[in-house]
Amino acid sequence: MMNSRWTRKIVVMIRNMKFQNKLMFGYLFACVIPLIGVSVIIFTQSAKGLEDSSQEFASLYTSQIRTTLNQFIDEYDKVTKSVLVDNGLIYNLAEEQSLSMEELINQKVAVQRMLTRVTWLKSEISTLMLVSRDNNVYQYTTTTSRVNENALLAQAKEWNKKYLNTDDPFFITGLHDRSYYEDKGAGAVVTVGRVLFSSNGAYAGMLLIDLDPFTLLQLDHDFVLARDKYGMSVIISNRQGEIVYHSDAASGRLSWDQVSESEMNAIKDTGDENLILLSGSTSKGDLSIKTEIPRSKLLQKINRIKGITVIVIVLSCLIIMLISFGLSYTITRPIKALRRSMKQAETGQYLPIEKEQANDEIGSLVYSYNKMILTIRTLIEEVYIAEIKQRQAKFMALQNQINPHMLYNTLESIRMKVLAKDDDESAEMIMILARMFRLVLGKGGRHHSVKNELEYTANYLQLQNIRFDNMFSLKIRIPDEMLACTIIPLVFQPIVENSINHGFLDYTQPMHIEIEGAWTEEGEIVIRIIDDGGGMSIDKQQELLAGLVDAELDKYKLEEDVKSERSGLGLKNIAERIKLHYGDQYYLTIRSGSERGTIVEIYMPNQVG
Fold it and tell me: Is the pLDDT of residue 563 over 50?
């Protein structure tokens, strides 16, 4: 369950990774994983080959040691047997208690002569000793250091216990100190000996030869160098499990005393996996050979190769990373440029990619994209120009829709007045009407100010007062600096006209209309047209507000539906013109007064013609 969850997370992470990183890491893994695999195989095979070669060398080395030791044993077996030639001498050793003084003297001279003869058989023999059955000590040495007889007898007693009852009278002791020498010098010696028996089988004594441990192995110089190169240790022990020779002591890494102290640990097989062990023995089994090769030393060279391999892998990874980064950057650079251009297109900036592209699939994609962007930009420009023309046509249509309607009402009022009575008022109404035409048609919609719009609205209300016997009053509260601001024509008058048409219901009550202006915090203009007429119901207000919302949707329509044609002029037309001329953030809204009447609010920009 946990593995599948982590697998899903890894898959999602890889899927959400940037394309450049996917390319770079994919190429990196494709190159590095085989590189690491090949390196591991080469290292493993090299290590195995080196270990096999080292074992072969160790076997050869052990075989050479076995040959040398067999030769050593054969030689000293012959040397110690040479004393058996004189049977009378050996017999007298066994019967020393029964010899006379003269015979003892002659015996001693004969033994000394025999020891001298044996010493000359091997040049490395420096001290030769013979201990008779009656514990008489005979010695011959080529050095100044003599043997303490009592100390030697104590040591010989221990050797008697170990070697007297063995099958082979020839023996080699383990390493021991020089405590029975009078000088008690440092170092260790190995004693080669033979138990002596007379012709009748009686125990006659022991012949002892003290040797330096180095004399056991006379190895070729190349073998010694190879041994030290691989860190090999050679341990030779006798049948009793005593160490006879240790290469670490011979090479100086350990002292002979340390070897003697760690005798049991050195001989037994510890089963350490870090050591390669080879065992052997001499032909007669007198000595056992154990060769140890530490794997750490053996693999030292291959570990050095491993370090070099790791460095090569790291450098290869860096080079591959740079190459993969360059390749992925080459591939993803045009894609990123394409993405940036698309982002610009989302914000309305239709700009083609100007950089020269390669003649590959991505380059073809960028070329097609540039053609598409240019086509879209051309189409947008055409649509934009058509939209401007449509706005102008819509604006002119709205104006043409309003003016004839107002002209029709005014002329109808004049006609009714002329029919009622023939007086000067008709002339005054015509004069006011002409003034209104000059305000609207003379400007042509250019540089029409708030002041012009107020004059036009006042003239209109003056006409209505002639018609309705001064039932309307107009109050204007506009800041002087606002009067010079430009405004689209025919905004106030249609609203006032709408107030009269829908709010003036009771002809016995006068109607008050107020136009006030104020500045917003942003410096924009807010105009409110307030009347105290009959007001409107909640349903009517919601209907009018819904129509004003539709004005934003219908501002680009040139055709009017049947309902709009029947409704004639109104607030919706003014709202449409405001949004067409100033933008969607500007508006016209309507609400009921606090007690009665209606408030129309207009929000426009501050523009000076």
Answer: no
